[in-house]
Write a structure and sequence with these properties.
The chain has 278 residues and is mostly helical. The protein contains 16 helices and no strands.
């Protein structure tokens, strides 16, 4: 009988006054109830995107919320316009991009508890929309840890696809590394080739001039690494992915030494750390 009250409270505006902070109080209730609060899922999904509290409540409910979230995520895949970035716009919180972002955040934080969402995340990775593709790849890196045989081919395919935009490839490379640690002989050659392709493209020239575009349309929800550089600099993403394999990535040292000679200071720093780790 508490659930309707908790849903009402968590949908109210946040207030810094101790007696008026209904969303925070409601969240304590969802934490206590956990999966018992499953009846609240439909109403929480209706307000998802309106701040962090609905997402946090769904996380408290856990895997029981995943099927409904997956259905809602599938609806947002039809949205192909660039995300609305003006948070002052009244439609910002209800825009499909904002809803998709919130759902991806939820899946990423649930990790392997959200495995029921893998089919729709794979659909997202194969989307023609760059921001959808990159975010879905990052979520797959978290959610698909127990399913490498399913996830690795999907990520390799999108990473090596000529239609994948170069700016997103660093994020996809990191996702591939995070789920492919037990398959170094498969993953490392793909990462090296990705680095070579990016290094010989306009990306390296743009990086050396400090002209890499800011990507406000891509949000990074993975817990590790929490790096702005990974979002804005695809070569850094590939370098960090190679570094995560440690000594198994010795074949990447020539590429990393080349990165260490870049005019771009950020890339040089990450290349030096990667060489040290390897």
């Amino acid at each position: 009988k508490a659930v309707p009250y908790l849903v009402d409270w968590i949908g109210r505006s946040y207030s810094s006054y101790p007696n008026g902070n209904y969303p925070e109080r409601a969240l304590r209730g969802f934490e206590a109830l956990g999966p018992v609060a499953k009846p609240a899922v439909p109403q929480l999904i209706k307000i998802i995107g309106q701040g962090d509290y609905p997402v946090r409540a769904l996380l408290c409910i856990g895997p029981a919320a995943v099927p409904a979230l997956a259905d809602k995520y599938l609806e947002t895949l039809a949205y192909t316009n660039p995300p609305m970035m003006n948070w002052r716009n009244p439609r910002y919180t209800t825009s499909p991009a904002r809803i998709q972002e919130s759902i991806i955040q939820t899946f990423s934080q649930m990790g392997t508890n959200a495995e029921a969402a893998l089919p729709v995340l794979i659909m997202g990775v194969n989307s023609k929309t760059p921001w959808t593709r990159a975010e879905a790849a990052l979520a797959l890196g978290n959610v698909g840890q127990n399913q490498p045989d399913m996830i690795i081919p999907v990520l390799i395919n999108v990473l090596t696809n000529a239609n994948t935009d170069p700016i997103s490839q660093g994020m996809i490379a990191w996702a591939l590394a995070s789920v492919g640690h037990e398959r170094p002989k498969v993953v490392i050659p793909v990462l090296i080739q990705t680095f070579t392709n990016l290094n010989t493209s306009a990306i390296q020239t743009m990086a050396s001039r400090g002209e890499l575009p800011f990507r406000p349309d891509i949000y990074f929800w993975a817990s590790n690494p929490s790096s702005y550089d990974l979002i804005t600099h695809p070569l850094v993403g590939v370098v960090d992915a190679l570094a995560s394999f440690g000594g198994e990535a010795k074949a990447a040292i020539p590429c990393l030494l080349l990165a260490g000679q870049s005019e771009d200071a950020t890339l040089r720093d990450h290349a030096a750390v990667a060489i040290q780790k390897i």
